[in-house]
Amino acid sequence: MRNILVLAAILLLAAAAFGQTHPSLPATFRATTIHGPEGADIFVRSGGNGPVVVLVHGYAENSDSWGPLAADLMKDHRVVVPDLRGIGHSSKPETGYDKKTQAKDIRAVVTTLGYDRTSVVAHDIGNMVAYAYAAMYPDKVERLVVMDAPIPGIDPWGEILQSPGVWHFNFHGPDAERLVAGRERIYFDRIWNDFTGDPGKPDEATRNFFTATYAQPGGMRAGFAQFTAFSQDAKDNKIFEQTKLTMPVLAVGGEKSFGALQAVIMRHVATNVQEAVVKGSGHWLMEERPAETVALIRSFLEAASQKSAQ
């Protein structure tokens, strides 16, 4: 046991020496759990003062992935950061992973905390939840930021599904759970490596941290359920697409990932879309190019404040 403790201490010191610490939200953020009406308990942290902005994380990550953005926005915003159902410290129900239901989870978080109209920033699968949220509650979304992910059912969804790179969209079910049990890091390494623009990102500390999040009992089942729901999400989004979003939308793509395609996707479903491409970045924008990504989002959100002041 003593040798194990010594080894753990050495690993921690080594990580610190190389500047590797896992992402985390500001320590001043207060945590609570919202018992939502759709059968999930959503863990959420919030902090700062000002206009409310909700940050919705993606797959292979949790809410801590927003650490750099939350630390910046809390200076003049109220920042609300939930774990999606089934991920992180939120509960892991058997059902409810379609993005319409998860949008209701987010709405329960917003209203239970005493807020109503907010901006929403999302990445990866978070985009899909955020789009459903904006489509279901369009008058409750001031501004919407989506980053580097497709929307099921929205062009070019059919082409994206033909790419070998999205093998993980169809890797789920009991056998997949058995295959990755105890090997979660191997599975996630494949996803992180396939979609990064920098082989060193996410770094080791971040990878270990997020892997541990999904290795919790039921974590991989719940994670896979995000993908199992895509066929239902596509049907729902085809209906949502009939009414275009009118709030300002910022579509951000990593240069080595979705790039300008993110804006192409969003112009199918929204009428006021701004395009931004983060140079040199792959899919993991907050890990690969945090400063540039934070600056883009801050500039977009500040435009709302400037408009209100006029």
Report on the architecture of this protein.
With 310 residues, the chain is α/β, with parallel strands linked by helices. The chain has one domain: 3-Layer(aba) Sandwich (Rossmann fold). The protein is built from 13 helices and eight strands. The protein has an eight-stranded mixed β-sheet, with helices on both faces. Helix 11 links the parallel strand 7 and strand 8. Helix 2 packs parallel to helix 13, helix 3 crosses helix 4 and helix 4 runs parallel beside helix 10. The protein is globular. The N and C termini lie far apart (64 Å). 46% of the residues are buried. The N terminus is likely disordered.
Biggest sheet features:
8 strands, mixed
Number of separate strands: 8
Q: Span from first to last CA?
A: 64 Å
**Strand percentage:** 15-25%
SSE run: HEEEHEHEHEHHHHHHEHEHH
Low-pLDDT sequence parts: 1-18
CATH superfamily: Alpha/Beta hydrolase fold, catalytic domain
Q: Count of helical segments?
A: 13
List the helices and strands and how they pair.
Elements: H1 2-17, E1 30-35, E2 41-47, E3 52-56, H2 67-73, E4 78-82, H3 99-112, E5 118-123, H4 125-136, E6 141-147, H5 157-161, H6 174-180, H7 184-195, H8 204-214, H9 219-228, H10 230-240, E7 249-254, H11 261-267, E8 273-278, H12 285-288, H13 290-309
Parallel strand pairs: 3-4, 3-5, 5-6, 6-7, 7-8
Antiparallel strand pairs: 1-2, 2-4
Helix pairs in contact: 2-13, 3-4, 4-10, 7-8
Short description:
This protein has 310 residues and is α/β, with parallel strands linked by helices. The protein has helices at residues 2-17, 67-73, 99-112, 125-136, 157-161, 174-180, 184-195, 204-214, 219-228, 230-240, 261-267, 285-288, 290-309; strands at residues 30-35, 41-47, 52-56, 78-82, 118-123, 141-147, 249-254, 273-278.
